[in-house]
Structure formats: C-alpha cells, structure tokens
C-alpha cells in the first residue's frame, strides 16, 4: 500500500510539473532584431501552435503541435501533401514545344512561377512564367515536369509526363501554397524567449521574445 501511494504521488508530481511547464511556456512570441520582417509563434495550452511570417507583400503561415524535450521546444505539423500545384488539363498540339500554363484568380502570382523538364543541366535555370502564366520549354520530349513558386523556395512540385500523348499542361495553385509545414523544428527555450533558426530565414540566431 505504501509503495502504491509513493508511486501515485510520484506520477502526480511529474504530471503536475509537466503541466506547469506547458502553462508557463504558452503565449505569443514575436521575432526581434530583424527590420521589415514580422514573424512569430502563438503557443496554445492544448499544445497546438500558430505561426506567421510577413515580409513586404509576402505572408506565410503554419500550424501544428509543439512539445517540450529538455530545454528544447519542437514543432511539427501535418506533412506537406507533396505538390503545390494541381494538373487541371492536358492536351496535345502537334509540333508545339512542351508548354506549361498556370491558371489563378490572382494573376499577380503568375510571374513568380518557374518550371523545367526532367533535370536541370549545368548553367541552366528554370524558365520563368510570363505575365499570362505561360512557360514554354525548349523541348518536345520530357519524362517529368517540375514547378516551383518563388516565394516558397523550399518546395518543388514534380509530375510524371508522357509527351507523346500530351504536350500542353495546365495547372493551378493548391490552397496550401503559402503554408509552411514543420518537421521537427527545434528552438531553445529561454526565460520569456525562444531562440534558434528561423524556419524561413537563412539565420541561425533568431530570438522570439514573449509578448503575451
């Protein structure tokens, strides 16, 4: 009986300590020290989080679950679905080069799409879409097409193709285009602050100060 009571007290103490630790770290943290960039995390008591990033006209966001491991906080979200573009139509035009067409209700996004076929060779670059969202590749034969969006540089969307059957491909953006997907991002937990690499900036020593 005595051992049972001791075990219960121990488990209760650990549970209470962990709950207190979670409660103390919850709140809003904002990035400091970087001009013209607004970014931060909102840590909720149910171990969920919301992330935001704003730079000029670019806004990105993310969400998921956080957990504490020692003096680190670890962020994870649902896995990236694998593509930021969806094929909505394909057709064949005799003699035409492989052509990618991007459709969107927001035409301002179109010039920021790039595409290429198969693999990029030395001294080659992805082809930039024109203002109409058209990318004409210098090939009539390709086994795969690859698309990327300038403001989401961490992801490339790839598609298998058979250019003997189709050479004109029309795509649109997926709804999650601007979402950032977290995969074990670690930040150090400091008194009223989080410290470490920003998920979207090439900067390893960022500080997010607690403001709420």
Secondary structure layout:
Blueprint: H1 2-25, E1 27-32, E2 37-43, E3 48-55, E4 58-69, E5 72-76, E6 85-91, E7 99-103, E8 113-117, E9 127-128, E10 134-136, E11 144-149, E12 157-160, E13 168-173, E14 183-190, E15 193-196, E16 206-210
Parallel strand pairs: 7-13
Antiparallel strand pairs: 1-2, 1-16, 2-3, 3-4, 4-5, 5-14, 6-13, 7-10, 8-9, 8-11, 11-12, 14-15, 15-16
Just give the CATH class of the largest domain. Mainly Beta
Strand content: 35-45%
Helix content: 10-25%
Structural class: mainly beta
Query: Per CATH, what is the topology of the largest domain?
Result: Lipocalin
Number of helices: 1
Low-confidence stretches: 5-18
Span of the ends, CA to CA: 45 Å
Mean pLDDT: 91
Which of globular, elongated, flat, extended, rod-shaped describes the shape?
Answer: elongated
String of helices and strands: HEEEEEEEEEEEEEEEE
Rg from alpha-carbon coordinates:
23 Å
Let me know the largest β-sheet: 8 strands, antiparallel, barrel
Structurally, the number of domains stands at 2
Strand order across the largest sheet: 1-2-3-4-5-14-15-16
Task: Write down how many β-strands occur, each being a DSSP E stretch of 2 or more residues.
Answer: 16
Question: What is the correct CATH architecture of the largest domain?
Answer: Beta Barrel
Organism: Panacibacter microcysteis
Keywords: Signal
Protein name: DUF4450 domain-containing protein
Signal peptide: 1-20
Features:
212 residues; mainly beta; Lipocalin; Immunoglobulin-like; eight-stranded antiparallel barrel; four-stranded mixed beta sheet; 1 helix; 44% strand; elongated; signal
């Amino acid at each position: 009986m005595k051992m049972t009571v001791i075990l219960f007290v121990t488990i209760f103490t650990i549970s209470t300590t962990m709950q207190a630790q979670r409660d103390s770290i919850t709140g809003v943290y904002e990035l400091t020290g970087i001009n013209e960039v607004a970014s931060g995390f909102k840590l909720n008591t149910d171990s969920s989080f919301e992330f935001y990033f704003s730079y000029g006209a670019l806004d990105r966001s993310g969400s998921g679950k956080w957990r504490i491991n020692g003096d680190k906080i670890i962020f994870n979200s649902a896995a990236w679905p694998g593509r930021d573009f969806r094929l909505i139509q394909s057709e064949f035009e005799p003699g035409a080069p492989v052509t990618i067409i991007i459709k969107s209700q927001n035409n301002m996004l179109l010039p920021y799409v790039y595409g290429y076929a198969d693999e990029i060779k030395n001294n080659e670059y992805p082809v930039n879409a024109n203002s109409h969202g058209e990318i004409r590749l210098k090939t009539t034969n390709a086994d795969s097409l690859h698309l990327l969006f300038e403001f989401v540089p961490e992801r490339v969307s790839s598609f298998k193709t058979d250019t003997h059957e189709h050479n004109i491909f029309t795509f649109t953006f997926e709804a999650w285009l601007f979402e950032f997907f977290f995969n074990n991002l670690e930040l150090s937990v400091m008194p009223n602050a989080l410290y470490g690499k920003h998920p979207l900036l090439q900067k390893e020593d960022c500080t997010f100060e607690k403001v709420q």
